[in-house]
Amino acid sequence: MTQPARDLEPASSARDLYGVELRRQRRLADLSLDRLSDIVNYSKTHLHGVETGERLPLPPISEKLDAAFGTGALFQGLWGAVKREYTPRRFDHCLELEARAVRIQEFGASLVPGLLQTKAYMRELFTEAEPGRSPREIDSLVAVRLGRQEVLRRTCPPGLWWVLGEATLRQAVGGPTVMREQLASLLPLVYTRHTTIQVVPFAAGACTLMNGTLILLTLPDHSTTVYLEGPRNGEIFDDHETVRQRVREYDLMKARALPPQESAKLIEATMETYESCESPRT
After folding, report:
1. Distance CA 117, CA 113 (A)
2. Measured distance CA(117)–CA(202) in Å, rounded
3. Which of 8, 23, 117, 281 has the highest count of CB atoms within 10 angstroms of its CB?
4. CATH 3.90.1150.180 matches 14-85
5. How many CB atoms lie within 10 A of CB 169?
6. Measured between alpha carbons, how far is 282 from 279 in angstroms, rounded to an integer?
7. Mind listing the pLDDT tens digit for each residue in 66-109?
8. At a CB cut-off of 8 Å and minimum separation 6, what does 33 contact?
9. Extents of the domains making up the chain
10. Helix (H, G, I), strand (E, B) or coil at 178
């Protein structure tokens, strides 16, 4: 039995606006939650939660709702607004470009990049970043980041290339079980038609990018935008000289990194250092 809907505030919350619009479109189509659940293959509980603003609309529900109601890209656009509501402002433009990119290249010095993170790994990062957050807030942040990973499952995904510092494998985020799960999830993506992962070993020594994150986003018009992030700041660059310099730095990092096959061996060897002794957080 569903709970009574709370009062939504669509004027101040993209999440609430999404719920109001879903309820409106469902009623216009004269569909019950049960019938809509059958059409979009999402549970009635999840749909009710989205309508009442208690749950985020997990991808690819927005595409399915637009198809069911014939609303073009209405719900996909609303999902973009919801994501921005739960993402630091400095990262907004990067997310917009990421969704359109035909090639994404990223270097992570000590943390697994968001597009590669498991749910348990994400949850640990968000919890540690701000201990005062409620479980509901953490759930929302995790859902948004998981939504970004839909890019990996597109029919025609972009080219994706990650270079990871060895510290990424050694930093025990969430404990042994979380790390084993996280590292195991990297292995299928090390070398595929669309993905490459390389690891820069500690033995490679100092490097220019070792203090932060670099993302290179190439769009269909062949232009490239740079996103640089440190612990508490991030900045976008698209001027020719900065892009040229950062692309060269990234290429040098690839040259220092182990080949994909050797990177996979290092990932597997590091997994063995994490003894599985607890259930992963969910």
Report:
1. 6
2. 22
3. 117
4. no
5. 24
6. 9
7. 999 999 999 988 888 887 776 665 667 787 888 889 999 999 98
8. 2, 26, 44, 47, 48, 51
9. 14-85, 89-271
10. helix
**CATH for the stretch 89-271:** 3.30.870
- Residue 64 bridge partners (DSSP): none
The alpha carbon dihedral of 81, 83, 84, 90 has a sign of negative
SS3 content of the chain, % helix, strand, coil (to 5): 50, 15, 35
**Could you write out the DSSP letters of every residue in 105-129?**
EEEESSS--GGG--HHHHHHHHHHH
**For 210-256, how does the pLDDT look when each residue is reduced to its tens digit (9 = 90+)?**
777 899 999 999 999 998 876 656 788 888 888 999 999 999 999 99
The rounded distance, in Å, linking the Cα atoms of 181 and 14 is 33
Intra-chain end-to-end CA distance of the chain, in Å: 25
